[in-house]
Specification:
The chain is mostly helical.
Length: about 260
């Protein structure tokens, strides 16, 4: 295929990447707000409601149920001082946050987020450029998609342990070891629960698994993985919560007892 024929494919891939990143980051901020307000409702509290935007030249403050707290957190992360300990491993200290954050984005490269799109039919004005090309709504349609998910997600363990070690702080080091041991333990559980899906669907291609789930079991029940293996789905959900170090599996961070564990620095 010549360079001109590859250009439409590149454009579609870039659009998919942009869409996935915008949706992922937006949902991350939104779910953080949901967690705050939900925990507040469960504890009979008001919850996040301090951050606001004031309309210029007025005293009207837009609180919007604390939605601006996520924006404030993002600005704080971007603008805060880049503190570095006196004694630390500069390379490891720099790479650790990227090794934690980047695999999360890479995992979504193989996750399907829609069916098949035909740009020429969707936008008739571009039909002469795209022709009859059809694209599955997936950034990377890999045959080993499910294995890639576990390969990338396992890199987060290295980032957590590297963050604790590189700061040359014994408390951060212990926090990193605590985080690594927990994440490795529940990574094994997640892998074993997914093995059942591989046996049921006979593939590790996420696109094929999604397409098979569009069918039915006996013409009544949907052919979803949770229907085939409900117990494995429950174990997977529990292990996923532990992998993300959320309550009640927040031992690696332990904010009330251990000043956020490996996040000490």
């Amino acid at each position: 295929m010549n360079g001109t024929g590859m250009l439409p494919d590149l454009v579609v891939t870039l659009v998919f990447i942009g869409y996935a990143m915008v949706m992922l980051l937006s949902f991350g901020g939104l779910l953080t707000w949901v967690e705050r307000k939900q925990s507040a409702v469960m504890a009979d509290r008001v919850g996040a409601n301090r951050a606001y935007i004031r309309i210029p030249f007025t005293n009207v403050k837009l609180v919007w149920l604390g939605l601006f707290h996520g924006m404030a957190d993002g600005l704080k992360m971007l603008l805060k001082e880049n503190f570095k300990p006196r004694t630390h491993d500069a390379v490891g200290y720099f790479l650790a946050p990227f090794l934690v954050f980047t695999p999360v984005l890479l995992v979504f490269a193989v996750v399907p987020f829609g069916g098949t799109v035909v740009p020429g039919q969707l936008i008739p004005a571009l039909s002469s450029w795209f022709g009859d090309r059809a694209y599955p709504m997936q950034i990377a349609n890999l045959d080993a998609g499910l294995l890639v998910v576990f390969a990338f997600s396992s890199l987060g363990i290295i980032g957590a342990m590297l963050a604790g070690w590189a700061s040359d702080n014994k408390f951060s080091l212990l926090g990193g070891l605590r985080a690594g041991s927990q994440m490795i333990s529940y990574e094994l559980v997640m892998g074993l629960t997914v093995l059942g899906l591989i046996l049921v669907y006979g593939t590790v291609n996420l696109g094929d698994i999604v397409r098979q789930q569009s069918g039915t079991i006996g013409g009544v029940l949907p052919a979803w993985g949770i229907v085939y293996q409900p117990f494995a789905a429950f174990l997977f959900l529990t292990a996923a919560i532990a992998e993300n170090k959320r309550i009640p599996f927040d031992l690696p961070e332990a904010e009330s007892e251990l000043i956020a564990g490996y996040f000490t620095e």
